[in-house]
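worker-03 picked up job from queue 'complexes'. Input manifest follows; two sequence lines, order preserved.
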Amino acid sequence: MQAIMNWLEKYVVPVAAKIGSIRWLVALRDAFIATLPITMAGSLSTLLNALLQTYPTQWGWTGFVNAVQPIITIDNTVGTASLTIFAIFFAAMWGYNLSSQYDVDGVAGTLISLAAFFMGINGTTSLTLGKNLTKGATKVLTDAGAVVGDKTLTVNSAFSTANLGSASLFTAMIFGALALVIYIFLMKKDISIKMPDTVPPAVSKAFTSLIPGIAALYAVAIVNWLFTSLTGNVFGDWLSATIQAPLLHAGQSGWMVLLVSLLVQVFWFFGIHGPNVLGPVLESIWGTSQIQNIQALAAGDPLPFKWVRGSFDAYVWYGGSGGTIVLLLAILLFSKRADEKTVAKLAFAPGLFNINEPVMFGLPIVLNAIYFIPFIVAPVLNTAIAYFVTMAGWVNPVQIAVPWITPPILNAFMATNFDFRAALLALVNMVIAFVIWLPFVMASSKMQEDEEA
Amino acid sequence: MIFINAPISGDKMIETLEAYNDNGVTFKFVSKNGMKLLFETNMDDLEAAAKLAKATIKAQRWASVLYFQVGVEA
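worker-03 finished. Artifact:
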């Protein structure tokens, strides 16, 4: 074990630490994390909408739906102002976090990232019409500035909410990055207007970022113009189609899902914060997929993805990474070791809310050779089962973001829009993990007995 | 005393905490047992000392991805 530790410390930890400390990746991860109030509010709105409108309508409870209409209206307002325009919030947080990582003004960074994002997306809204407009209607609309085509109506200077949601996240990332790299570079080079000390700090700060901000936005605008002129495409639309869509599609690969599940466990076991290292990948691929699912659910559209960020929480990381809640159950029911039973009793309540630090270090699991195999095998097998069942369409895909502290089984039930089959799948996974953990718990118990004998 | 459960990079943690000397606060490495490191500190509030130790280590670039536990030794 010591040899493995030395090897890890020499070769793996520096690489993991390097990845985990790349400012751009840290900022990316933190930008997604910072949008949590928005994703949660949007998810709650979707959840309430399902409970107050979708299901009651299906059951014919029109009287109930009419009675709660004001709540539905309020709820829809929250949904529209949160997840529907999610890319705006992400662009803001991306600018703030990246600027903060480089110790330059985060407020200006936020604004620059936002402005760059709006440059990248399509600034027109097109509607497909059922039939051609009359000459009179065409003239009225044309006079108002709209462009009327063959069964189409295009309104300039009108951002469609379709371009402000999660479909434009990579546009926000790339355009924000382009602008911010120039902004940060110029700020670091101190190319800015200095105000005397007598000027209030807020004014002085705004002036400091004036030249870097203007330069950054014009540079992005030039790149955007060149791209559009040369290709005839809107840059944001092209990015969504050629980068975002294939990456998200790759995230649906079983091998990729299993690899992430395996790496997280191996990292944890050796004392490396797995989700922290893999956070940028987890959030930008599966987190984005999850937001697209929530948006599709809210819009009543088919869900675009089956395996998303919340799928790991629902079926694999119940009770914390490693599904340790079932280990605690196995210890409480079958172990004869007083020390492990004491830890299990103390760790059980936090474990119900997916907090497993007491068991990871208290038992411990970290670096404990006897628990290495179940700690790796149980989650990976759980991932494989849940992936197969989800892909087969036997349970609803995860389509609502639930807080990570939501207890096991309930998490799967809520995240899949109240699919009892998902709750059952989570339970089956827990039983399977229990069976995997049990022989090792008993072996640990026996080892103690043998030592005492 | 405070403890740190650190599977890896224990030596760097000892070095970092022993070098800490802000506002007269000090940490002194006492012993190592497996992955458990024990430190003495001149802070009266041990809970606050544990939090400070964790924050100090987390602030190091090499520690950003490490998973470790800091607490008050009973």
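worker-03 released lock.
Chain B has one domain: 2-72.
The helical segments of chain B are 10-19, 46-58.
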